[in-house]
């Protein structure tokens, strides 16, 4: 497409960004098309956004920084040669909902998917599972499985990642700022009368910024840790009355400013769909229809609550490049990274007409010629 790009990496990830940049050069991107500009974010952005040739922003990061950059662009609008295109992939407060119809193996699946979604990469993913709504008939079993799986998690250094077989499931969080932020949420939960830290809850920054994977149970589905993005290894569980499924989905929809990933009903459907007995057993057919209805209800009520809506799967795991990814509301402009449609945001289309006829008079209707 010919666009020239300034790539400003996060100061916390400059080296990995640099490696990717070198790979792109080695793969044949002409020098200068991408210009790698590490450095202090506010200073660089101020200069770039004040330039009349600034044409577009593709931002990945927190919601507040994105909003600030959008305001800065608005304040500079008279300076620009064209109206800048603005794309943002921002925060998330991703959720799992467990429906009352889960059986024992379904609850176990939900527990494993929650461990993975919440704690892989120390929960430092925009799509990390951060809040879970459990039908009350499943709560005891779900907690039991969750704690059982949690006990198997090892936390330590990241050695081994070079061969993609890490010795530990969790490493440290990325820096002191992240450590302090996550720690403050754990402390808050410890002091909160409606919250209980039921696993993890400890941290150590004596050598590296290590936080144990933490599970909070709350009686308040709108508590601080159920609504704010933490971006660390902390997940909060709350339960709902099994017969209040639809009310709960409305609560899920309205609780936060974000709308990135999930639904993750984790129903039976996933299991039954693969069974050849489905066509034969009326009990399974009835169950299938009932569960399917729950999915349709969820899909409708949560239409705008998740840009990536997963059924029977965890909130993480979008393979960007193979699967469009992105959310709306406070989670971004939902332009879907990894999709062809994102590229169109950075194209300024031109329509070309060439006229081969002379005109000799003027009259209406004028658009015939
Ligand atoms: N939606 C997505 O696809 C996606 C993917 C990954 C991360 N995220 C989000 O990113 C956040 C975590 O990443 P982070 O801690 O690097 O976010 P961040 O907002 O602190 O930083 C993101 C980028 O903004 C720059 N920046 C920070 N302050 C700035 C300022 N005042 N002016 C200009 N630029 C500034 C940083 O240097 C960095 O490059 C989370 O909110 C997470 O959900 C979103
Ligand atoms: N790969 C991420 C999505 C992209 C984040 O930047 C995930 O696991 O969901």
């Amino acid at each position: 497409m010919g666009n020239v790009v300034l790539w400003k990496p996060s100061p916390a990830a400059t080296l990995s960004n640099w490696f990717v940049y070198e790979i792109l050069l080695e793969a044949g991107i002409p020098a200068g098309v991408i210009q790698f500009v590490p450095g202090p974010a506010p200073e660089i952005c101020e200069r770039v956004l004040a330039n009349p040739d600034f044409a577009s922003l593709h931002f990945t990061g927190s919601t507040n920084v994105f909003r600030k950059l959008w305001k800065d662009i608005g304040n500079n609008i008279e300076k620009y040669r064209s109206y800048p295109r603005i794309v943002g992939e921002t925060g998330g407060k991703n959720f799992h909902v467990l429906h009352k119809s889960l059986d024992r193996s379904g609850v176990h699946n939900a527990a494993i998917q929650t461990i993975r979604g919440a704690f892989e990469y120390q929960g430092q993913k925009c799509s990390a599972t951060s809040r879970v709504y459990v039908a009350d008939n499943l709560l005891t079993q779900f907690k039991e499985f969750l704690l059982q799986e949690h006990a198997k998690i090892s936390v330590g250094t990241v050695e081994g990642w070079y061969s993609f077989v890490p010795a530990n499931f969790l490493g440290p969080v990325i820096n002191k700022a992240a450590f302090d932020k996550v720690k403050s949420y754990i402390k808050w939960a410890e002091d909160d009368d409606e919250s209980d830290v039921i696993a993890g809850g400890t941290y150590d920054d004596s050598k590296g910024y290590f936080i144990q994977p933490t599970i909070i149970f709350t009686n308040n589905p709108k508590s601080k840790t159920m609504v704010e993005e933490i971006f660390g290894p902390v997940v909060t569980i709350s339960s709902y009355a099994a017969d209040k499924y639809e009310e709960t989905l409305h609560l899920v929809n309205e609780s936060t400013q974000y709308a990135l990933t999930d639904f993750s009903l984790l129903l039976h459907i996933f299991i039954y769909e693969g069974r050849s007995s489905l066509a034969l057993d009326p009990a399974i057919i009835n169950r299938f229809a009932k569960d399917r209805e729950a999915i349709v209800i969820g899909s409708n009520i949560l239409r705008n609550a998740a840009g990536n809506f997963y059924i029977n799967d965890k909130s993480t795991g979008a393979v960007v490049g193979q699967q469009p990814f992105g959310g709306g509301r406070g989670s971004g402009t939902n332009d879907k990274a990894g999709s062809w449609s994102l590229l169109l945001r950075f194209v300024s289309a031109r329509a070309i007409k060439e006229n081969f006829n002379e005109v000799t008079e003027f009259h209406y209707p004028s658009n015939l010629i």
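The chain has eleven helices and 13 strands. Residues 266-280 have pLDDT under 50 and may be disordered.
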